[in-house]
Amino acid sequence: MLKDGIGEGSEFSGYHPWVNLTYYILAIGITMFSLSPWFLAATFVSSWLYSVLLRGRGVIKMNLIFSFWTLVIMAGINVLFTHNGATVFFYIRGNGVTLEALIYGVSAAVMLISVIIWFVSFNVIMSADKLIFIFGKAAPVLGLTMSMIFRYVPLLKDRFQEIRMGQACLGRGSGKGFIGKMRQFGKEASILVSWSLESSIESADSMEARGYGLRGRTSFHLYKFTRRDTVLLLLMIILGAIVVAGCALGKTTVWFYPVYVLGNFDLMTAVTLAAYVLLLFLPIIIDISGEVRWKRSSLEM
């Protein structure tokens, strides 16, 4: 399970699309407005764990590379261009490099990394069918556009690998020297662009022929709002409301300048953090429990 990930076999993915979307709105939305180290740690760890659970060990390398460079670039830029802060390490041409600027850069980088990694699992849970189901009636163009955007990167990656394999079978897989390799890469990229443009035209003609977006057009789906969907949705709303209330009361507030000041960790902060952690780990708990039940039933058979 850890090697390949559970992917679309996720138990949480089997819930109603509105339940899945509500979870990601709460998880990503709260993450974007929380710079408290406790909340950043919670969203960073949970986003990593869930992406690995869904996509397998192969996603660890991608997450590590992205996280490292994002952290280095954002922290470095903030340190070099922001000179506020009382704790000065040293001076560069009269501009102070401060501890507070470094902490803010690291915090902002962790927040951005967490949001991006959340979208790794979002691409698995929120399939194109779910996005079209949610936005198809109210905003059909938006629903189709979003489904195509989230599908675009993996689709291009698969097509590029197919093109490269085809070129290799023709004996053109590797050019001689740097110029030859760049020329071959340009040829493969040109084929990919041509293929993608042709495919997009065919998709547009097909959707138009089927009357997509016309008033009164209906669509088939198998999604039904069941009792378990209602229970999970209510639980997420309650937990989200507790976290939002804690944020409104300033329990996630952090002051970076002129000195780094973290608010007192009182009872309300603990309750807010506990609700946030439980909210973030809900799909992980659901998927792991689903995998355990499936293994037990397979052993009994």
TrEMBL record:
GO terms for cellular component: plasma membrane. InterPro entries: ABC/ECF_trnsptr_transmembrane (IPR003339). Its main location: membrane. It comes from the Bacteria. Keywords: Membrane, Transmembrane, Transmembrane helix. It is found in: Membrane. It holds the Pfam family CbiQ. CDD domains: EcfT. It is a multi-pass membrane protein. The chain crosses the membrane at residues 21-50, 62-81, 102-125, 131-153, 231-255, 267-286. This is Energy-coupling factor transport system permease protein.
